[in-house]
Amino acid sequence: MAKLIALYKHPENKEAFDKHYFETHVPLTEKIPGLRKMEVTRIIGSPMGGKGKYYLMCEMYYDSLEALQSAMRTDEGKASGKDAMKFAGDLITLMIGEAADE
Amino acid sequence: MAKLIALYKHPENKEAFDKHYFETHVPLTEKIPGLRKMEVTRIIGSPMGGKGKYYLMCEMYYDSLEALQSAMRTDEGKASGKDAMKFAGDLITLMIGEAADE
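Predict the joint structure of the above. Result:
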């Protein structure tokens, strides 16, 4: 299992961010070929208190690293990436991860 | 669904980190009452290239925020937290998250 992890810092306008994220970005991302599962998590704080640096995390699961990399090169993958950069390019950190037990 | 997310920055000594993490920290964490699932992900890079800031992510799933918070107050939760702070206190970022569709 491999996943693309997107971590978003707190946006200035949370309402506008959520509207674009859930109404436009998620539907675009769901079209990516080979995407097996998508898990969106609202970060609500830290056990130490405080709101922390990040606002939202999205994990996009693929069968393998190769499948993930192929998916990012499809038209749908590029459209999702382009949209993320446009609406949240200054907020996003992207990471590629692989299950540790593989 | 709620989860505790631990993001670890790159350790200086990856071999010593992995040994402690997988042989001591994971078994301690698996004992925490109410823990439903644990997903450990090796961060292998960024789609933009480069190794990025983070080395490893661990997600610990609970039935609810309340269950997560109760779990952290148990002896097993405290032992896991204490161990993390001891071996990786300078590397770890902890976040509490909730599934966005709840």
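The CA atoms of residues 14 and 40 of chain B lie 15 Å apart.
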